[in-house]
């Protein structure tokens, strides 16, 4: 009698087409966004809490999540329609020769994000363990080189498993925060403070984080129709924002003092849960590596597509790892500008580039091109094979 191979329910779930269509893109987007989007807590302060506790929630739920759901959903459908699963192919199909402008914005964001995560990695080791700044930065560099060396399959596995760990830690962050400063959170929210600019804060946060979209492209080839693309886009928006919401709720328990803190997450955990702090820092450090690797992997895939076109031979593992190490090293140089300055000025400025080249272009040129392609396919003559 033939013995059936046993697989755990969770392994089956992760290998299912449903998971790969609706969950995996969101997991990858969230993994890449965390470190540059809300891991330190500074980003949530800059683009949400600065507009009042209630104003921040309005920006998060009425602007950011809605924009993400729309743009991710339509972007996934565009990628499916044109079979474009690296950012060079995607934006050449969308913008034609103008795709180079997007690449410039993406490289600038890549350096900004690498600067933020490198600075945070060094700060974690310096402030938490008393080790030299370069020790944390060096481990960050090695981790990125390792992940980019192994490429797509390694990134899918690592990002999936690490994301579940990250969700568990962020949920613990929320529960401990509610138990310690739940009363302060309630009283702060009850004031209903909303400052002018909350919608713009949510808008900027949404669009600078859309620069992470190229890192998600390689995972979209499981999506087979428009309905799946739209549902997957909505799931991505929710999966990506939820941990940020957990952190934000606890953050406003320390409002308004938290507005001037360099790394709010670190400060809050020292106050409410010293035992959770080292766990959070280890998970955050791993997420820094994931974020950097995700951004760099998108560049590797873009280079790989060119090499395959020219000589039918893509990047080797060694070349991927070396490129990852080189780009991470460049991020160390950017880190010298300081965390608050990078987030406040760099991210805010680059948002406009992604708004125009991705958002506006997608909902004008992109929708037109998808409609045109669908129309041309429907009007193509069919020839009978019956004699």
Using only CA atoms, what is the Rg?
21 Å
Task: Quickly name the level 1 CATH class.
Answer: Mainly Alpha
- One letter per element, helices H and strands E, the order comes to HHHHHHHHHHHHHHHH
Shape: globular
Q: Count up the helices.
A: 16
Supply the CATH superfamily name: Amino acid/polyamine transporter I
**Structural class based on helices, strands and sheet pairing:** mainly alpha
What is the number of strand segments? 0
- Integer average pLDDT: 82
How many domain regions? 1
Would you give the CATH topology? Amino acid/polyamine transporter I
The helicity comes to: over 70%
Largest sheet: number of strands, sense, barrel closure: none
**What is the level-2 CATH architecture name?**
Up-down Bundle
Cα-to-Cα separation, first versus last residue: 50 Å
Strand content: under 5%
Quick structural gist:
The protein has 387 residues and is mainly alpha-helical. 79% of the residues lie in helices and 0% in strands. It is built from 16 helices and no strands.
Please explain how this structure is put together.
Helix content is 79%, strand content 0%. The termini are far apart. It has helices at 9-15, 17-22, 24-37, 42-47, 53-82, 87-95, 99-129, 133-150, 152-190, 198-209, 213-216, 226-251, 264-272, 276-311, 317-334, 339-379. It is built from 16 helices and no strands. It is mainly alpha-helical. The chain has a single domain, classed as Up-down Bundle (Amino acid/polyamine transporter I), CATH 1.20.1740.10.
